[in-house]
Amino acid sequence: MAQLLITHASTKHHYLQIASIKQYNEPDFEKKLKRHATKIFENYYVFNFKFELSCDAIPGKKFEPDLILVSKNFTKWVIVEVELCKPPTEHTRNQITCFSNPKFKPDDLVEYILKEDPSLSPLKDEFIKCVSNIPPDLIVVLDDYSEKVFKKFYEHKKQLKICVMEVYKRIGYIYEGYRFGGDYPYELTRFSKLKYSDEQHYEVMKRDFAKDLPHEFEAKYDMDPFKITVIKSGKTTYLKFDHNIPEDVYMVLGISLGGDYILQKL
User: Fold this and answer.
1) Spatial distance between the Cα atoms of 168 and 172, rounded to a whole number of angstroms
2) Which domain of life is it from (predicted)?
3) How far is CA 253 from the centre of its chain?
Protein backbone atom coordinates (compact mmCIF):
# COMPACT_ATOMS: atom_id res chain seq x y z
CA MET A 1 0.00 0.00 0.00
CA ALA A 2 1.48 3.35 -1.05
CA GLN A 3 1.94 6.13 1.47
CA LEU A 4 3.58 9.54 1.60
CA LEU A 5 5.63 10.97 4.46
CA ILE A 6 4.89 14.71 4.66
CA THR A 7 7.30 16.80 6.74
CA HIS A 8 6.75 20.41 7.77
CA ALA A 9 8.80 22.24 10.40
CA SER A 10 8.89 19.87 13.39
CA THR A 11 5.96 17.69 12.31
CA LYS A 12 5.92 14.48 10.30
CA HIS A 13 2.77 12.72 9.13
CA HIS A 14 1.97 9.74 6.95
CA TYR A 15 -0.62 10.15 4.21
CA LEU A 16 -2.21 6.93 2.91
CA GLN A 17 -3.40 6.46 -0.65
CA ILE A 18 -7.18 6.79 -0.77
CA ALA A 19 -7.49 4.12 -3.49
CA SER A 20 -6.05 1.61 -0.98
CA ILE A 21 -8.09 2.51 2.10
CA LYS A 22 -11.44 3.86 0.95
CA GLN A 23 -14.05 3.07 -1.66
CA TYR A 24 -15.03 6.19 -3.56
CA ASN A 25 -16.77 6.67 -6.87
CA GLU A 26 -15.70 8.10 -10.19
CA PRO A 27 -17.54 11.45 -9.75
CA ASP A 28 -15.64 11.98 -6.46
CA PHE A 29 -12.31 11.41 -8.22
CA GLU A 30 -13.38 13.55 -11.18
CA LYS A 31 -14.16 16.45 -8.83
CA LYS A 32 -10.71 16.20 -7.25
CA LEU A 33 -9.01 16.39 -10.65
CA LYS A 34 -11.16 19.31 -11.78
CA ARG A 35 -10.47 21.17 -8.53
CA HIS A 36 -6.72 21.12 -9.18
CA ALA A 37 -6.60 20.90 -12.98
CA THR A 38 -5.47 24.50 -13.56
CA LYS A 39 -2.42 23.84 -11.36
CA ILE A 40 -1.67 20.42 -12.82
CA PHE A 41 -1.99 21.64 -16.43
CA GLU A 42 -0.59 25.12 -15.90
CA ASN A 43 0.32 25.73 -19.56
CA TYR A 44 -3.25 25.06 -20.70
CA TYR A 45 -6.64 26.68 -20.53
CA VAL A 46 -8.78 24.11 -18.68
CA PHE A 47 -12.51 23.67 -19.23
CA ASN A 48 -15.19 21.37 -17.84
CA PHE A 49 -16.41 19.65 -20.97
CA LYS A 50 -19.79 17.92 -20.93
CA PHE A 51 -20.13 18.46 -24.69
CA GLU A 52 -21.40 15.66 -26.91
CA LEU A 53 -18.97 14.21 -29.46
CA SER A 54 -19.63 11.57 -32.10
CA CYS A 55 -17.46 9.52 -34.46
CA ASP A 56 -17.80 7.51 -37.66
CA ALA A 57 -16.67 4.29 -35.92
CA ILE A 58 -19.75 4.25 -33.65
CA PRO A 59 -22.64 5.73 -35.65
CA GLY A 60 -25.70 6.97 -33.82
CA LYS A 61 -24.03 7.38 -30.42
CA LYS A 62 -22.59 10.42 -28.66
CA PHE A 63 -20.18 10.62 -25.76
CA GLU A 64 -19.16 13.36 -23.33
CA PRO A 65 -15.56 13.68 -22.05
CA ASP A 66 -14.75 15.26 -18.69
CA LEU A 67 -12.25 18.03 -19.48
CA ILE A 68 -10.70 19.79 -22.42
CA LEU A 69 -7.26 21.42 -22.36
CA VAL A 70 -6.20 24.05 -24.89
CA SER A 71 -2.57 25.14 -24.86
CA LYS A 72 -2.08 28.80 -24.06
CA ASN A 73 -0.14 29.29 -27.29
CA PHE A 74 -2.85 27.41 -29.25
CA THR A 75 -0.56 24.71 -30.67
CA LYS A 76 -2.27 21.74 -29.02
CA TRP A 77 -5.52 20.65 -27.43
CA VAL A 78 -6.33 17.60 -25.35
CA ILE A 79 -9.49 15.65 -24.51
CA VAL A 80 -9.40 14.26 -20.96
CA GLU A 81 -11.41 11.27 -19.76
CA VAL A 82 -11.39 10.41 -16.04
CA GLU A 83 -11.78 6.79 -14.88
CA LEU A 84 -11.13 4.68 -11.80
CA CYS A 85 -8.29 2.18 -12.15
CA LYS A 86 -10.16 -0.92 -13.28
CA PRO A 87 -10.46 -2.77 -16.60
CA PRO A 88 -12.36 -0.62 -19.10
CA THR A 89 -16.03 -1.36 -19.66
CA GLU A 90 -17.54 -1.44 -23.15
CA HIS A 91 -18.77 2.13 -22.57
CA THR A 92 -15.25 3.29 -21.66
CA ARG A 93 -13.78 1.54 -24.71
CA ASN A 94 -16.37 3.24 -26.90
CA GLN A 95 -15.49 6.61 -25.35
CA ILE A 96 -11.81 6.06 -26.17
CA THR A 97 -12.70 5.12 -29.75
CA CYS A 98 -14.85 8.23 -30.15
CA PHE A 99 -12.48 10.70 -28.46
CA SER A 100 -9.54 9.41 -30.52
CA ASN A 101 -11.16 10.65 -33.73
CA PRO A 102 -14.14 12.84 -32.82
CA LYS A 103 -16.59 14.66 -35.07
CA PHE A 104 -17.76 18.11 -34.04
CA LYS A 105 -18.44 21.62 -35.31
CA PRO A 106 -15.56 23.88 -34.25
CA ASP A 107 -17.81 26.93 -33.78
CA ASP A 108 -20.17 25.00 -31.49
CA LEU A 109 -17.33 23.50 -29.48
CA VAL A 110 -15.66 26.88 -28.93
CA GLU A 111 -18.98 28.51 -28.06
CA TYR A 112 -19.41 25.87 -25.35
CA ILE A 113 -15.98 26.31 -23.76
CA LEU A 114 -16.22 30.11 -23.81
CA LYS A 115 -19.47 29.84 -21.84
CA GLU A 116 -17.32 28.11 -19.21
CA ASP A 117 -14.98 31.13 -19.12
CA PRO A 118 -16.40 34.23 -20.87
CA SER A 119 -13.27 36.23 -20.00
CA LEU A 120 -11.51 34.35 -22.83
CA SER A 121 -13.99 35.52 -25.48
CA PRO A 122 -11.46 37.94 -27.07
CA LEU A 123 -9.44 34.83 -28.00
CA LYS A 124 -12.35 33.16 -29.80
CA ASP A 125 -10.67 33.20 -33.23
CA GLU A 126 -7.53 31.57 -31.79
CA PHE A 127 -9.57 28.81 -30.17
CA ILE A 128 -11.48 28.15 -33.41
CA LYS A 129 -8.27 28.03 -35.44
CA CYS A 130 -6.71 25.58 -32.96
CA VAL A 131 -9.58 23.06 -32.80
CA SER A 132 -10.25 23.36 -36.55
CA ASN A 133 -6.70 22.69 -37.73
CA ILE A 134 -5.12 20.48 -35.05
CA PRO A 135 -6.36 16.96 -34.18
CA PRO A 136 -6.91 16.56 -30.43
CA ASP A 137 -4.77 14.41 -28.17
CA LEU A 138 -6.53 12.09 -25.75
CA ILE A 139 -5.42 11.22 -22.23
CA VAL A 140 -7.16 8.95 -19.75
CA VAL A 141 -6.58 9.87 -16.10
CA LEU A 142 -6.77 6.98 -13.61
CA ASP A 143 -6.60 7.07 -9.81
CA ASP A 144 -3.98 4.32 -9.36
CA TYR A 145 -1.24 2.32 -11.09
CA SER A 146 -1.92 -1.22 -12.31
CA GLU A 147 -0.01 -2.90 -15.13
CA LYS A 148 -2.89 -5.36 -15.50
CA VAL A 149 -5.38 -2.52 -15.99
CA PHE A 150 -3.03 -0.56 -18.26
CA LYS A 151 -2.67 -3.66 -20.45
CA LYS A 152 -6.45 -3.86 -20.89
CA PHE A 153 -6.56 -0.22 -22.02
CA TYR A 154 -3.63 -0.74 -24.42
CA GLU A 155 -5.33 -3.81 -25.90
CA HIS A 156 -8.07 -1.46 -27.05
CA LYS A 157 -5.81 1.43 -28.15
CA LYS A 158 -2.14 0.60 -28.50
CA GLN A 159 -0.65 4.08 -28.06
CA LEU A 160 -3.19 5.40 -25.55
CA LYS A 161 -1.78 8.03 -23.20
CA ILE A 162 -2.54 7.27 -19.56
CA CYS A 163 -1.96 9.61 -16.62
CA VAL A 164 -2.38 8.74 -12.96
CA MET A 165 -3.44 11.09 -10.17
CA GLU A 166 -2.94 9.38 -6.83
CA VAL A 167 -4.82 10.94 -3.92
CA TYR A 168 -3.34 10.70 -0.42
CA LYS A 169 -5.02 11.59 2.87
CA ARG A 170 -4.10 11.79 6.55
CA ILE A 171 -6.75 9.83 8.38
CA GLY A 172 -9.07 12.04 10.40
CA TYR A 173 -7.94 15.29 8.76
CA ILE A 174 -9.28 17.30 5.84
CA TYR A 175 -5.92 17.77 4.11
CA GLU A 176 -5.08 15.77 1.00
CA GLY A 177 -1.94 15.26 -1.05
CA TYR A 178 -1.67 14.48 -4.75
CA ARG A 179 0.86 12.82 -7.01
CA PHE A 180 0.46 13.17 -10.78
CA GLY A 181 2.39 10.96 -13.20
CA GLY A 182 2.29 9.09 -16.49
CA ASP A 183 1.90 10.46 -20.01
CA TYR A 184 1.66 14.12 -19.06
CA PRO A 185 0.66 16.33 -22.05
CA TYR A 186 3.83 18.43 -22.25
CA GLU A 187 4.01 21.24 -24.76
CA LEU A 188 7.13 20.87 -26.89
CA THR A 189 8.88 23.81 -28.54
CA ARG A 190 11.12 21.58 -30.70
CA PHE A 191 10.98 17.84 -31.24
CA SER A 192 11.99 14.89 -33.40
CA LYS A 193 10.45 11.50 -33.97
CA LEU A 194 12.63 8.56 -32.96
CA LYS A 195 13.09 5.34 -34.92
CA TYR A 196 13.48 2.08 -33.00
CA SER A 197 16.84 0.27 -33.39
CA ASP A 198 16.79 -2.05 -30.36
CA GLU A 199 15.52 -1.99 -26.76
CA GLN A 200 18.02 0.66 -25.69
CA HIS A 201 18.72 2.57 -28.92
CA TYR A 202 16.62 4.92 -31.03
CA GLU A 203 17.62 6.90 -34.12
CA VAL A 204 16.90 10.66 -34.11
CA MET A 205 15.06 11.41 -37.36
CA LYS A 206 15.53 15.21 -37.53
CA ARG A 207 19.18 16.08 -38.13
CA ASP A 208 18.77 19.76 -37.22
CA PHE A 209 17.38 18.68 -33.84
CA ALA A 210 20.06 16.01 -33.34
CA LYS A 211 22.99 18.38 -33.93
CA ASP A 212 22.13 20.46 -30.84
CA LEU A 213 21.87 17.54 -28.41
CA PRO A 214 24.50 17.35 -25.63
CA HIS A 215 26.59 14.18 -25.33
CA GLU A 216 24.71 13.14 -22.18
CA PHE A 217 21.46 14.44 -20.70
CA GLU A 218 18.32 13.48 -18.81
CA ALA A 219 14.84 13.33 -20.33
CA LYS A 220 11.54 12.77 -18.53
CA TYR A 221 9.56 9.69 -19.61
CA ASP A 222 6.24 9.18 -17.80
CA MET A 223 7.52 12.05 -15.61
CA ASP A 224 10.50 9.91 -14.48
CA PRO A 225 14.10 10.81 -15.47
CA PHE A 226 15.87 8.71 -18.10
CA LYS A 227 19.61 9.06 -18.63
CA ILE A 228 20.46 9.31 -22.33
CA THR A 229 23.78 9.10 -24.15
CA VAL A 230 24.13 10.45 -27.69
CA ILE A 231 26.00 8.23 -30.17
CA LYS A 232 26.93 9.61 -33.60
CA SER A 233 27.68 7.33 -36.54
CA GLY A 234 28.42 9.29 -39.70
CA LYS A 235 25.38 11.47 -40.37
CA THR A 236 23.14 9.37 -38.11
CA THR A 237 22.51 10.12 -34.43
CA TYR A 238 21.37 7.45 -31.97
CA LEU A 239 20.12 7.77 -28.40
CA LYS A 240 21.14 5.13 -25.86
CA PHE A 241 18.72 4.86 -22.92
CA ASP A 242 19.50 3.48 -19.47
CA HIS A 243 16.07 1.76 -19.49
CA ASN A 244 14.67 -0.73 -21.98
CA ILE A 245 11.69 0.39 -24.04
CA PRO A 246 9.48 -2.11 -25.92
CA GLU A 247 9.87 -2.27 -29.70
CA ASP A 248 6.22 -1.42 -30.35
CA VAL A 249 6.40 1.95 -28.56
CA TYR A 250 6.78 4.85 -31.00
CA MET A 251 8.64 7.77 -29.45
CA VAL A 252 9.31 11.47 -29.83
CA LEU A 253 11.99 13.51 -28.05
CA GLY A 254 11.33 17.19 -27.52
CA ILE A 255 12.07 20.24 -25.42
CA SER A 256 9.34 21.57 -23.13
CA LEU A 257 8.44 25.22 -22.57
CA GLY A 258 10.50 25.00 -19.38
CA GLY A 259 13.59 23.80 -21.28
CA ASP A 260 13.44 20.16 -20.13
CA TYR A 261 14.00 17.22 -22.47
CA ILE A 262 10.85 15.10 -22.72
CA LEU A 263 10.35 11.57 -24.10
CA GLN A 264 6.79 10.85 -25.17
CA LYS A 265 4.89 8.08 -26.87
CA LEU A 266 3.36 9.12 -30.17
Assistant:
1) 12
2) Bacteria
3) 15
